[in-house]
Write a structure and sequence with these properties.
Organism: Lichenicola cladoniae
Strand order of the largest sheet: 1-2-3-4-5-7-6
CATH topology: Aminopeptidase
CATH class: Alpha Beta
Number of helices: 5
Pfam family, one: Acetyltransf_1
Protein name: GNAT family N-acetyltransferase
CATH architecture: 3-Layer(aba) Sandwich
Mean pLDDT: 93
Oligomer: single chain
Domain N-acetyltransferase: 1-175
Structural class: alpha+beta
Distance between the termini: 25 Å
Number of domains: 1
Order of helices and strands: EHHHEEEHEHEE
Bound molecules: coenzyme A
InterPro entries: Acyl_CoA_acyltransferase, Bact_Acetyltransf, GNAT_dom
Low-confidence stretches: none
Length: 175
């Protein structure tokens, strides 16, 4: 297994991985219509993370089987097209950075890939002088983040187009 920074050429493959990951892993925690709406409206690689060099992929035999990133920008969730303006930067002295867009291929779930990506992101955020991290976790991923020392701050609903709301938990960790 190898971790490396995501490149623009990876985005099409990661988008397919995201759909497979959501469809396979979310049905236990969301209604099937929520999963369908999430796939249609909410997800897709955030191009800003790729541009900022803060998005990583995990490869097995040169196939990307997982992706995850962190961000020094305000945006905390959702996709972000290639032509959208960048959201403002956060101040490491007073603000929390973000953990963003973690997805593992369902065929490789529970084999430590998400954990490797998370440690890589936390190390990079520390190097950038952040002392705290916040994220919005899908209901399915809450045990994963709890296992890594994150605390639940409270439930949230993320609004998307067409009035669709995704139920998530806001979580935080001191780095
Ligand atoms: C959340 C996710 C990225 C975790 O990736 P992963 O590679 O399977 O996680 P790991 O194998 O590193 O898990 C580490 C530990 O976290 C906990 N954990 C992970 N997934 C869990 C689950 N579904 N249920 C309970 N605990 C879980 C366990 O303690 C696990 O250790 P164990 O397998 O030895 O018991 C993956 O399940 C995923 O892609 N989910 C769908 C997309 C998603 O919702 N992403 C989060 C966006 S915020």
């Amino acid at each position: 297994m190898k971790l490396r920074l995501a490149e623009a050429e990876d985005v099409a493959h990661i988008n397919k991985l995201i759909v497979r990951s959501i469809e396979a892993l979310h049905l236990e925690h969301y209604h099937s219509d929520e999963v369908a709406s999430a796939v249609r409206l909410a997800y897709g690689v955030d191009w800003q993370l790729v541009r900022d060099r803060t998005y990583y992929v995990a490869e097995v035999d040169r196939i990307v089987v997982g992706a995850g990133g962190w961000s020094y920008r305000h945006t905390i969730s959702g996709g972000h097209g290639p032509d959208e303006a960048a959201s403002p930067s956060l101040d490491p002295a007073s603000e929390a950075c973000r953990i963003r867009a973690f997805y593992v291929d369902p065929d490789y779930a529970r084999s430590g890939i998400g954990s490797l990506l998370l440690v890589q992101c936390e190390d990079a955020a520390r190097e950038a002088s952040f002392a705290r991290v916040e994220l919005t976790s899908t209901l399915q991923a809450v045990p994963f983040y709890l296992r890594h020392g994150y605390a639940i701050m409270g439930p949230m609903e993320l609004p998307f187009d067409e009035g669709f709301m995704l139920r998530v938990q806001l979580m935080e960790k001191l780095l």
